[in-house]
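call fold(seq) -> tokens
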Amino acid sequence: MTPPSRRAFAAAALASLLVGCGGPGPDRATEEDRAVGTPPPAATVNGERGAKAIARSVPVGLRIPAIGVDTPLMELGLAPDGTMQVPPVTADDRAGWYRHSPTPGQAGPSVVVGHVTVGSYGDGVFRDLARLRRGDKVTARLENGAAAEFAVTSVRKVAKADFPADDVYGDVNRPELRLITCGGQRDDEGYLDNVIVFATMTAASGP
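ret:
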């Protein structure tokens, strides 16, 4: 299947995020939240040099030690209505990689989404995503046995109505990662905000 255009990719992902986590109530943005979220063009993150792209391999797991996440990854595609799928609401909550984005370690923004809450089951796998800070490590385990390590460059909380699609899904010439969940207050419709983590690959190991 031919991947959708960047515009279609962004529209599908945004639509899914608007319905995937459930409700908001406006939460006042800080100056940091409003800052441009695209990772800086510098070749280092907290003194670590960015790493070269590696071969394509489907991600099977994600580890974020700073917030205690170690989750298998499911593959997500497009739903019949053209929106991006989100992980099902289950007690055994997992994050999901959008298969029309690059795999972690390829050049471009690899996109992983997860729930902040899972209905009556309680907290979701990305419940603490907003606690991440610049320099925190994120490791993607790949199907071929390799691992791609990323460092967080920025964390943003934005109103869903102002979702920065170009910053999140726009083309970049190095391996990057986007982790996305819901956040902020809730109303009857669900969460009004998204939490978006931007990260750049700093190392790779394995095949």
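The two ends are 26 Å apart (CA to CA).
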